[in-house]
Every structure is written in structure tokens, then in C-alpha cells.
Amino acid sequence: MKKSLLFIILISLTLGISAQSWLPKVEEMAKEKEELTFFDIQKTVNDHYSAKNFNDGYYLNDDGTKTKVPGWKQFKRWECYWNSRVNIQTG
User: Fold this and answer.
1) Would 35 be classed as within a structural domain?
2) Is 25 within the bounds of a domain?
3) Does any domain span residue 52?
4) Is the pLDDT confidence value at 46 over 60?
5) The domain containing residue 77 runs over which residues?
6) How far apart are CA 74 and CA 60, in angstroms?
7) Angle at 27 between CA 24 and CA 32, to 5 degrees
8) Does residue 7 sit within a domain?
9) How many domains is the chain partitioned into structurally?
10) What is the pLDDT of residues 63-88, one digit of tens each?
11) Measured between alpha carbons, how far is residue 30 from residues 34, 37, 41, 47, 53 in Å?
């Protein structure tokens, strides 16, 4: 009983957490377009991070310290995997 209650509490706490700050932009684009391509998602993420003080998976703070960007490695792995498998004309 305690384990199942703890499991339910942990699941309910994590449902609202989103590690990728660019994901709402992609979801918004998906509502506008009928089908998203690899290049649409790639451009959205690159535009999102190019507007910030960002370098190689880290934000550079005003005081010069680095803060790790959550989800960056996962996105780069996804991008690397699909980059060689996607059709250049259709995305």
C-alpha cells in the first residue's frame, strides 16, 4: 500500500515537469502545420538556443559560470541519429 501510494505521488509530481524549454515552441508549430519535418524541429531548437548566451550544452551566466542545459545531449543524440536517415527533400 505504501509503495503504490508513493509511486502515485511521484508520478503526479513529475507530470508537469518539462526539461526541454524548446518543446512548447515545437508543439505550437505542430498545431499550425499538418506535418513537422526534421528540419522544422532542428531549426526551432537552434533558433531557441541562438537567442541565448549558449555554448556547447551550457548557458553562460553573467558572472561567467556555466549552467548545464537539461535535455541538450538527448536532443543532439536524436539529431545525430536522424540526420543521416532523413530524406533531404521531404524532411
Assistant:
1) yes
2) yes
3) yes
4) yes
5) 19-83
6) 20
7) 130
8) no
9) 1
10) 878 888 888 888 899 999 999 898 88
11) 7, 10, 10, 16, 27
The cell for 6 is 508513493
The helix-helix angle for 72-83 and 38-50 (nearest 10°) equals 140
Average pLDDT of span 26-45: 77
> Which amino acid belongs to residue 86?
V
pTM score, whole prediction: 0.60
Separation between Cα atoms, residue 39 and residue 31, nearest integer Å: 16
Question: Exposure string (b/e) for 11-42, b if CB count within 10 Å is 16 or more?
Answer: eeeeeeeeebebbeeeeeeeeeeeeeebeebb
Rounded CA separation 53/51 (Å)? 7
